[in-house]
Amino acid sequence: MKEAVTIPVIGNGDIRSPQDAAQMLTDTGCDGIMVGRGAQGNPWIFRQIVHYLETGELLPSPSMKERLAIILRHLDMVVEHKGEYIGIREMRKHAAWYTKGLPHSAELRHHFNQVETKEDFLKVINQLNH
C-alpha cells in the first residue's frame, strides 16, 4: 500500500502496546500510527511508544499514585466541560479503564459505579490513597 501512493500513510488498528506500534511500523512501512481504543484508560501509552521506538526499552506502567493523579485531572476536566451529572457518569467508565489490571480492580469498579457526585468520587480516590 505504502509503495502505491505518494501521500503519507498512517497505520492504525489494534495498537495496544509499544510493541504493537513498532510492529505496525515495521510490517507496513507506514509513516505514522494512530492509537484508538488502546489509549482508553491508558493515556501513558503515547510516552511508552515514543520511548520504546527511541530506545527499544519498555517503560513501566504508572504507579497507583500516578494513576490516581491522572484520574483526578481527568475528573476535573470532564466535570468542568460537561457538568457534574454527565461528567461523573462518564468518569465511571474511565475510572474502570484506568484501574484495569490493578489489585482489587473489580471492587474498585463497583465503588466507582456507585458514585453520584464529584465529592463521592473524591472519597473513593482518597480511600485508595490510604
Key terms for this structure?
130 residues; Non-ribosomal Peptide Synthetase Peptidyl Carrier Protein, Chain A; 2 domains; two-stranded parallel ribbon; elongated; DUS-like_FMN-bd
3D structure, described in words:
The structure is a single chain. With 130 residues, this protein is mainly α. It is elongated. Helix content is 60%, strand content 5%. The termini are far apart. It has a two-stranded parallel sheet with strand order 1-2. It has 2 domains: 2-55, no CATH class; 64-128, Putative flavin oxidoreducatase, domain 2 (Non-ribosomal Peptide Synthetase Peptidyl Carrier Protein, Chain A).
Largest sheet composition: 2 strands, parallel
Oligomeric status of the shown chains? single chain
Indicate the CATH class of the largest domain. Mainly Alpha
**Major beta sheet, strand line-up:** 1-2
Indicate the low-confidence ranges by residue numbers.
Answer: none
Q: What structural class do the secondary elements suggest?
A: mainly alpha
Beta-strand portion reads under 5%
Helix content: 55-70%
Spatial extent as radius of gyration: 18 Å
Protein name: Putative tRNA-dihydrouridine synthase
InterPro entries: Aldolase_TIM, DUS-like_FMN-bd, tRNA-dHydroUridine_Synthase_C
Domain DUS-like FMN-binding: 2-125
EC number: 1.3.1.-
